[in-house]
Amino acid sequence: MIQTDILIIGAGPTGLFAVFEAGLLQLKCHLIDALPQPGGQCAEIYPKKPIYDIPGFPEVLAGDLVENLMKQIEPFQPGFTLGERADTIEKLEDGSFIVTTNKGTQHKAPIVAIAGGLGSFEPRKPLLENIGKFEDNGVAYMIKDPEVYRDKKVVIAGGGDSALDWSIFLADVASEVTLVHRRNEFRGALDSVEKVQQLKNKGKINLITPGEIVALHGEAHLESVLVRKKTTAVEDIKLEVDHFIPLFGLSPKLGPISDWGLEIEKNAIKVNTFDYQTNVPGVYAIGDINTYPGKLKLILCGFHEATLMCQSAYQRIFPDKKYVMKYTTVGGVSGFDGSKKEAPKAVVKAIE
């Protein structure tokens, strides 16, 4: 049985940053993730996607963010159980928990922090009769390697941040990028909407709104799509393409976690905003998997939630100990092996 101070379910950016904050408090962490490598969606779905809202980074690729987080937590030597899904949780008489994975691996900890992102998920697919025929043959629901689209004709459908960001990014990669959205208004960041409009004005992106992909054509590989433009009169436009990428988001599912006795609201775990604890004392939820009034699903917010969670976890584990606030600039960060590393610009808590 694996024993640790904080058992983190989910090794995405929020879960990884929680290791850093816990490490500053000299708390040991172990992470469980169903994916075969750390990083969550950033590593599995869009490692080459640029992220623009991480403080101190005007732009950082999702994969690079994960790599940096892994370097940041290296001094604290976290453990990982990868390629296994957390299935069951049992609360013991002493208040600690045993979490067992689908492969039977057992973990014991006084604190469980659920940082599972959107949980298990699958892409939302457009209702097109023959779309399955072209999956992996011109149709993809996520972009892992943008070089696949180098000098190709690409049609992206969607109106959220992913559709906007990838349209902007691929404008300098693909030979032709067309963005199709069923409304004139987009749901993404205003800055991204303005960039798309600027690229359209420069002739680097074709923008069709309001419009909808209504048919796919081709033999072994996708060859063209039919776009129905809905203005004052309906107009059908046939576009020759190499790739069609519908980015309509993901359908999240909590999976086995939904049977853990936690309070669930709209497929997310309800928490308080004091320390992001659930209705089960000792079980926290941080990042995209939680919900509370005013919740924003941003990595930045997950980092904040992880920080406060670790403070509360320390107080639960050591109710009689006190600590004072200092900074890592005072003396660097000490790893569990006694090694000293250059101090990152973050707050550290010195235990008394």
TrEMBL record:
InterPro entries: FAD/NAD-bd_sf (IPR036188), FAD/NAD-binding_dom (IPR023753), Fd--NADP_Rdtase_type_2 (IPR022890), Ferredoxin-NADP_redctase_2 (IPR050097). PANTHER family: THIOREDOXIN REDUCTASE 1-RELATED-RELATED (PTHR48105). The keyword Flavoprotein applies. Its EC number is 1.18.1.2. This is Ferredoxin--NADP reductase. It catalyses: 2 reduced [2Fe-2S]-[ferredoxin] + NADP(+) + H(+) = 2 oxidized [2Fe-2S]-[ferredoxin] + NADPH. FAD binds at residues 14, 33, 41, 46, 86, 121, 288, 329. Homodimer. It is an enzyme of class 1 (oxidoreductase).
